[in-house]
Design a protein that fits this description.
The chain is mostly helical. It has 2 domains: about 1-50, Arc Repressor Mutant, subunit A; about 55-175, Tetracycline Repressor, domain 2, CATH 1.10.357. Helix content is about 75%, strand content about 0%. Helix 4 runs parallel beside helix 7, helix 5 (about 65-80) crosses helix 9 and helix 7 (about 100-125) crosses helix 8 (about 135-155). The longest helix has 27 residues, at about 100-125.
Amino acid sequence: MRQRVARACLDLLAEGRVDFGPADVAQLAGVTRATVYRWWPTKAALLREAVTEHTGDRLDPPDTGTWAGDVHALALRLATFFSDPLEVTQNAIMAGGRHPDYDQVVLEVYAPLFDAWRAVIERARSRGELRDGIDADAVILTLVSPLLLVPLLFHRKLTPTEIRRHTNLITAATQSPA
């Protein structure tokens, strides 16, 4: 039932709809409104269920044992995720800025992911692979931005060559001198 409800929400979001209610979700999921209200008493709870289902473990950071390997492996995961048509639509909804409640739910769900990505950077720092003064959030923003923006703005996936160039740039800018 949880997956059906989450899927119904995701299907509505894929259509660019954020203005749906529990009755819409119940009908699409094939459950009663009472069921939806019992388990997801607020729209934020419904959205949280959907976004959590959508991300799953697809964005968990890798641990390849090296900074360059981790950056490249994470970039590959993120590029695949951010080019998913549902994710492109959700990012367009957020970019529009007209649904702050939705934006807040997404950022809440992503908070532990951001922490996990920061941990990748701290792991590299503890191995002595990063230059002094490297800011974890700046690295994350630099890594994520083109991976998210190319599918959103240019309606295409990044090529493996583009991803490799991007990750090479990040590692070159952040790696400690050998």
